[in-house]
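quick one, 177 residues, struct below
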Amino acid sequence: MTDEPPSPAGRPGSAREIDIIHENAAWQAALPEVDRLVRETVLVGLQHLEEDLEVCVVLGDDPLLQDLNRNFRDKDRATNVLSFPSDDLLPDGLRLLGDVVLSYETCAREAHEQDKSLADHTRHLTLHGVLHLLGYDHEAAEDAEEMEGLEVELLAGLGIANPYADGVLRTAGKDEP
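---
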């Protein structure tokens, strides 16, 4: 894998639409290149798919993620990332893969606690969310190993060190107890 992300069209003959919705200005203030990082990361996650896809990434905050987590998962607390898979066919012929929603406060806090850059942590959690849209999960140990291995491989292509190397993120995307 090269250091260059795939072209915006992904594989030849496929189209990619990546919508980024800013629900919290802190993302742009802390990470001015956040849109580029998110787009590149989503494309890396989708690079092996040949169909025309659309993904929406919402750059939110703890109150938004807590509300979503409570309403859709019965967990009344904020979390770092949530994914909402879809399989809708859109009028333009793209298939809506789903939505990935990130919380600025939780991502920034975790990056600081784990001595990682906000950019790298944001890329990791964006990719983590995209993989959930593709059907990967980490509920069972075997599934977690597969998903984490793929994350490590794809993140390495972006020049990002293994986020699981020190065991800190063994529950990426999971709620804390």
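The beta strands are 16-22, 53-60, 81-89, 95-103.
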